[in-house]
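## Example pair
The file below holds two records. Each record gives the amino-acid sequence first, followed by its structure token line.
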Amino acid sequence: MHKLKEEAKELLQQLIETPSLSREEENTAQLLSDYLVSKGIKVNRQFNNIWAVNKHFDPQLPSVLLNSHHDTVKPNNGYTKDPYKAIIEDGKLYGLGSNDAGGCLVSLIAAFVYFYEKKLPYNLILAATAEEEISGKNGIAALLPELPPIDLAIVGEPTLLDVAVAEKGLMVIDATVTGKAGHAARNEGINALYEALPDLNLIKDYRFEKVSDYLGESKVSATIIQSGSQHNVVPDKCVYTLDVRVTDSYTLQEALDELKRVLKADLQPRSMRLNSSALPKAHKIWDVIHKMNLKCYGSPTLSDQALISYPSIKIGPGDSARSHTPDEFIHLEEINQGIDRYIAILQHYFDQN
């Protein structure tokens, strides 16, 4: 086990020093593939997604998916350290992607390697995926159709090793209010800006009807507005953008329908892909959560959970508050704890059979 933990840290250092911005993950995909092959594991590759199954894979058995991502956001201007240099100081490993979600990924890989040759009551599938940071179509969404049905997905994201059993979804809506053009000096036309004001005032204080046990209220915010082109022309169109964070109390369609009932504007969602999620109350992983006394919460941040239609939990070493921040880091001990936690969860889950 000690060797596996040291290999995980070394692999994370290599990942940090191999740039992997979203849609540019070719080199980290190869790095991950090479590592798994070195462990005697057959690797599959689709775009920049790397996946593998346990040695005794049996199509008749249910499957557990271990998923995390190897793409990163762009480093921001606040870095004082080289974001592409793996630096260890005071027990911390610094570098872009160390916390989000490299620590989770290498911990899941270690857990997969630990169980790889064992005879299990479940299939175990490892998926190191691309394009998570942009919710891209060539990431987990493209890979899922290639995989067998999933009984449970464990999504690796930094959660302080607490369990996110629900996650908010995202819907971006373009709202259009129509007026009638006219000359501003002669008080002609119907000003679309003014026509939009009742909507904007309502949005400012709007509260959705249904409330989630873990995530509380869904939230809608007006974030962009565009109207008019000349100072002396009454604008005939006003377009504003809504950012809608939807809890598991709603499907995206249900949230859209509720907004359509109360707003005057024509509402056109840009996408209906990024769904909210919640772990079904009857799922067997709840027994493991209770047995291990794991802390549960609802996550306001988006992950590949939004694109996985199967029951899932989100858990991993590191802290979400460090993600996308200057001089990102993860504690080396957190990686040790992450590996132990993943293995314990899986062992308890397998022992239920």
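Second record, same layout:
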Amino acid sequence: MFNRLLASIGIGSAKIDTLLEKSRYAPGEEVRGVVQIRGGSVEQRIEKIELSVMTEYIRESNDQKHRHNCVIGKYPVSQPFELKAGENREVPFSFQLPFQTPLTLGKTPIWVKTELDIRGAIDPGDNDRIEVVPNAAMGIVLGAVEQLGFRLREADCEYASRLGRSLPFVQELEFVPAGGPFRGKLDELEVIFYPDARQVELLLQIDRKARGLGGFFAEAMNTDETFVRVAFTQEHLQAGTQAIASQLEKIIARHA
């Protein structure tokens, strides 16, 4: 009885360790691994094991920036079972990393959180950081942006409930024209990705450089920014980076 009481407050309770097949993934890729469970000093009933893909986003309030954790996807990986004292058990899992998972650029963290739901006890947990890199479609688009002379300056996940679709935030990739056709014409180009299995959609924020008195007034009133949506299907992307760069150049030039 005393051992059960200790286990209920986390002393002598079951322990978990999640082992991922690797540490680097792209949005849409399958994540595989095992959850290793080691029984504590008493038998315990495990109601479920659940994995969550997590990140952080920034929300401004009263001129202050606050960081919030956010669940991108949640995956149950076991049915209820009894874990005997001292028992070692492995539970394999696999799930698709959500397409809307942000890239680990700048200070954006992504981690897999494991929770062990134990009846009548404190739930032990485990957090595993992963690196998220562009998938093939996103890589082609980013390569095209780079070909046009843009350099990535900053990447942040920011609160935007209207733009985030299923999530309360978007990841903004902020580029500056270090060379190429838009140097001297744009202050910056912000890119938001909306990828899925069929295409990659972009929301471009084109920030024009102030020209003359009218341009300075427009900049002061934030009317020098234009939002443009564009989507590239798999057929478009198969044409390669140069073809995508040519299309983006035409789209941006119309609003520069």
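Notes on the second record: The helical segments are 2-8, 136-147, 212-220, 234-237, 241-253. The CA atoms of residues 48 and 79 lie 6 Å apart.
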